[in-house]
Design goal:
Layout lengths: L3 E5 L3 H12 L3 E6 L4 H8 L3 E4 L13 E4 L8 H8 L3 E3 L1 H7 L8 E5 L4 H14 L6 E3 L5 H4 L7 E4 L2 H5 L8 E4 L7 H4 L2 H8 L7 E5 L3 H7 L5 E5 L9 E4 L2 E4 L6 E5 L8 H16 L4 H10 L8 E6 L2 E5 L6 H8 L5 E5 L9 H7 L3 E6 L4 H11 L5 E3 L7 H12 L5 E4 L12 H14 L1 H4 L10
Parallel strand pairs: 1-2, 1-4, 2-3, 4-5, 6-8, 6-9, 7-8, 9-10, 10-11, 16-20, 17-18, 17-20, 18-19
Antiparallel strand pairs: 12-13, 13-14, 15-16
Helix pairs in contact: 5-11, 5-12, 16-17
């Protein structure tokens, strides 16, 4: 490994990378646009720190390798300058892989457009149920650079397209691509590049493939990895699937039941698919179907993913703020009917027309907010001209109070008010969690939502 590094970005991942390198006696320069307590802490550990609005390419003059925070796209000046100089450039998961020592735990990787965190936390629960020391890491939890040599038997690792793009040696023992839909096109420059980045999880030679997703199966046709497929239909031999309402493993001579599909939560077919993907990875390291089923029955979902925040007056209020693109929103919209839809934010160049055309018949009304609210309003006007729609202009989280008030006016007993924005959150909120928390707080404050329930929800 090299001795002199530039770490670009000093948030959680970047700071962890700098710390790990400094602990190994490396010379580290840390660059960030904003000063912070992390910058000061890294300077105290011996890093050279540079805080500036613009990047001076002179910072690369005495550098052998560059570690980029995952948010840096390939067209960022740092990435371009490093590539022109022939410098090895990668991000935190790749560094974690390179720092692995003898006996380091293998990685089971999960990627896809939506459902990664749910799948990887399901997987970690399955591994632990099978008696293996494990943790869900990657985009969540403890930084990989600190845990890659930790006290684990196997790691459940969530990897984004950003992280996989900036990887070269990272080789999971097995990897699942759970779905693919247009997202982050502005970062990657197009869908093909985005999809290709995902295939890095199959480098280890074992691929878990969503047989119901044509984009994933198309990628699988070009891999040399040994594939295991999963489907929401009845599985063929060698596959995982759903038969007579049960998740089953048909990789042996006979189908073996895992658990009832109704026992998978959060609800929705997409989460059944996530559970099947996790089960395929867990079975690959010897976890029994019995242990996998127990893990799914006891699984606690992550916040902001189809999470019911209130049920009052026969109306269910659901926080699905993690739906930061149309593909994710489609999964939640398919799980409820009828719906008052709360949507809007940053569409990131992705068209929302197909989503609106498909699900508008389920809607009682829609409340729109955020940067690209007008684009969603236009789609609703084309595909559902008679649907009541409110478009709100607020530019901070205070607007969520008005969002909830308008949604409550549209809703009737038996309806679900669904925050599933189909868009990113950074236009108005710190992140999707902040958006979801603002929604839940506004629901709690609203008189009709906070009142005791007068009758049970028809969808409960």
């Amino acid at each position: 490994m090299a001795d002199r590094f530039l770490v670009a970005g000093a948030r959680v991942a970047g700071a962890a990378c700098a710390e790990a390198l400094l602990m190994r006696g490396k010379t580290v320069t840390v660059y960030d646009r904003d000063d912070s307590e992390r910058i000061a802490a890294l300077a105290a550990l011996g890093a050279r720190t540079v805080v500036a609005d613009g990047f001076d390419t002179a910072l690369l003059d005495d550098v052998e390798e560059v570690v980029l925070s995952p948010g840096f796209p390939p067209h960022h000046p740092i990435a371009v300058a490093a590539r022109e100089r022939g410098l090895d450039t990668y991000s935190e998961p790749e560094l974690a892989w390179r720092l692995r020592g003898p006996g380091a735990p293998p990685w089971l990787a999960v990627t896809g457009t939506n459902g990664k965190t749910t799948t990887v936390t399901m997987l970690a629960a399955m591994l632990r149920a099978g008696g293996l020391r494990s943790a869900a890491l990657g985009n969540i939890g403890e930084p990989l650079v600190h845990a890659a040599n930790g006290p684990y038997d196997v790691l459940a690792v969530e990897l984004s397209s950003y992280q996989l793009h900036w990887s070269a040696e990272l080789t999971p023992a097995a990897g699942a691509i759970i779905n693919l839909a247009p997202d982050h096109l502005d970062w990657h420059g197009g869908f093909d590049a985005y999809a290709e980045a995902k295939t890095a999880v199959w480098r280890g030679g074992a691929a878990v493939v969503n047989l119901d997703d044509t984009a994933v199966t198309a990628l699988a046709k070009n891999t040399n990895a040994e594939t295991t497929g999963f489907t929401l239909d009845e599985p063929a031999p060698g596959q995982f699937g759903v038969a007579l309402g049960f998740l089953v493993d048909y990789t042996g001579g006979e189908p073996v039941r895992i658990c009832s599909a109704d026992e998978v939560h959060p609800p929705g077919a997409h989460n059944v698919a996530n559970a099947l993907a996790a089960a395929a990875l867990a079975r690959g390291v010897g976890v029994s179907c019995e242990d996998i089923g127990r893990a799914l029955r006891e699984y606690t979902p992550e916040p902001h993913r189809n999470a019911t925040v209130a049920e009052t007056g026969g109306i269910r209020w659901v926080d699905d703020s993690k739906a930061t693109n149309p593909h994710a929103a489609a999964a939640a919209l398919a799980a409820y009917d009828p719906i008052v839809w709360i949507a809007g934010g940053q569409l990131k160049g992705v068209d929302v027309g197909d989503l609106v055309a498909r699900f508008a018949p389920r809607m009682r009304g829609a409340v729109l907010l955020g940067q690209d609210r007008a684009l969603i309003a236009d789609a609703l006007a084309r595909h559902a001209p008679d649907l009541p729609v409110t478009v709100l202009d607020g530019d901070d989280d205070a607007v969520m109070t008005d969002v909830v008030a308008h949604a409550a006016a549209y809703a009737s007993p038996g309806d679900t008010v669904l925050l599933s924005p189909a868009a990113g959150s950074y236009d108005m909120f710190q992140n999707y969690a902040h958006r979801g928390d603002a929604f839940a707080a506004a629901v709690e404050r609203h008189p009709s939502a906070a009142a005791p329930s007068e009758e049970p929800s028809e969808t409960s």
